[in-house]
């Protein structure tokens, strides 16, 4: 019998078998696991690589505390304790409370009981996953037994030495601990987080405890914000000077000082930066007509910055007057304060900058309803891009800039008409041959 008819004696390299089996669905992988010990190990690698645990807050399968309140994630911990053979294969773990899931149950005496996750349970889960590289915590309500005056982290030393990506999303809390403090307690479980994604964190109105923040020794290499609320939680961390990548949220004047603590701390290590200007240029809720408050971030002092990604909107002016996206029979338009700030920033950035990306927000509806006082005068537009064209060509020729990319948000492609208007607005930059669209 040759190797093709007896897969258990296949001469295919193990690396190639991994490449093949990772393309199979779960049912097929279960069949492959019965072929041989080698195939069992490879199949388990792909069967258990990612574990998604949805928390359904029913009584069934939940282990109760002494007071009868169910303990969230206790069932997952018991599963891991009962299946030691699969724990080492789990690399990605997602802990989620599905949307619209009720978090409050009613006790025997009709009292409200908020179902909570104890940090001890999460700690025990993480301790049983030696290969964990990615963790998502989404909507889990945490219980912290400490009083507000007790500002010690929930662990004395990290449970996980290093993790590639940690994604934290919204959660409930108990009454005595702020959302921001819970975020810091979660961070204390890790020695190093290569990418901390706070893109979906919202409603952190109170800043984290400064006394707690200075005790969090977690090293963060890349940090992503989706909302300014999360700035309240992490801007006081002591190890921000090690950041190499930072994706900032939209920043209003009142958050500029907090955001500046991040950029100032990371100015000597930051290599990649993402900033967003599109929220300030939607005249439905007019942003400030002067974005000079962003100068407090002192981005030009980031001496090692290699790449910059900027989210902007580009409009046309239609009749009746209303901002619209770049379209036929009109010039491309920037919100003038954003144009002024961006042009000034690009002129000042260090010569280490080699890559520039414009994320063009072309998904804003052209059907916004504006009152008469929200005319182009109330939302000044910049149609002459001569200064930006000059700054970009100077950087391309003399300051080390190697490439400029224009792309739609979230990987979307720019339309032909949008590309046409950008080329017409930046003729010298386009002729450099270093501009591309995606």
UniProtKB/TrEMBL annotation:
Classification via InterPro entries: F-box-like_dom_sf, F-box_dom
Domain of life: Eukaryota
Domain F-box: 6-51
One Pfam family per UniProt: F-box-like
Any coiled-coil regions, as ranges: none
Name this polypeptide is given: F-box protein
Lineage: Eukaryota, Fungi, Dikarya, Basidiomycota, Agaricomycotina
């Amino acid at each position: 019998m040759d190797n093709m008819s007896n897969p258990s004696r296949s001469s295919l390299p193990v690396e190639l078998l991994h490449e093949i089996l990772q393309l199979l669905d779960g049912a097929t992988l279960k069949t492959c696991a019965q072929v041989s010990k080698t195939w069992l190990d490879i199949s388990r690698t792909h069967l258990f690589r990612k574990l998604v645990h949805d928390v359904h807050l029913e009584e069934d399968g939940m282990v109760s505390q002494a007071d009868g309140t169910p303990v969230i994630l206790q069932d997952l911990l018991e599963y891991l304790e009962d299946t030691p053979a699969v724990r080492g294969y789990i690399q990605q773990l997602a802990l989620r409370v599905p949307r619209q899931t009720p978090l409050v149950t009613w006790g025997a005496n009709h009292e409200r009981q908020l179902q909570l996750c104890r940090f001890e349970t999460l700690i025990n889960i993480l301790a049983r996953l030696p290969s964990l590289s990615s963790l998502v915590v989404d909507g889990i309500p945490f219980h912290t037994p400490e009083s507000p005056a007790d500002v010690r982290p929930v662990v004395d030393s990290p449970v996980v030495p290093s993790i590639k990506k940690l994604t934290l999303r919204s959660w409930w809390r108990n009454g005595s601990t702020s959302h921001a403090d819970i975020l810091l307690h979660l961070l204390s479980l890790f020695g190093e987080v290569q990418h901390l994604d706070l893109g979906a964190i919202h409603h952190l109105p109170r800043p984290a405890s400064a006394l707690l923040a200075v005790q969090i020794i977690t090293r963060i290499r890349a940090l992503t914000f989706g909302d300014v609320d999360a700035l309240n939680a992490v801007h006081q961390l002591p190890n921000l000077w090690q950041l190499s990548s930072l994706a900032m949220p939209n920043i209003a004047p009142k958050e500029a000082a907090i955001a500046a603590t991040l950029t100032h701390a990371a100015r000597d290590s930051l290599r990649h930066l993402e900033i967003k200007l599109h929220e300030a240029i939607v005249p439905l809720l007019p942003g400030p007509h002067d974005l000079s408050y962003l100068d407090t971030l002192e981005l030009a002092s980031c001496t090692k910055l290699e790449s910059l990604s900027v989210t902007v909107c580009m409009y046309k002016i239609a009749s009746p007057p209303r901002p619209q996206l770049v379209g036929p029979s009109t010039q491309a338009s920037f919100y003038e304060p954003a144009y002024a700030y961006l042009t000034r920033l690009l002129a000042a950035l260090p010569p280490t900058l080699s890559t520039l990306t414009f994320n063009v927000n072309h998904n804003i509806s052209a059907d916004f309803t504006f009152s008469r006082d929200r005319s182009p005068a109330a939302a000044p537009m910049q149609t002459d891009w001569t200064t930006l064209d000059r700054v970009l060509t100077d950087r391309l020729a003399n300051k080390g800039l190697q490439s400029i990319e224009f792309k739609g948000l979230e990987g979307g492609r720019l339309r032909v008409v949008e590309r046409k208007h950008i080329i017409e607005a930046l003729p010298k930059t386009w002729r450099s041959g270093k501009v591309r669209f995606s």
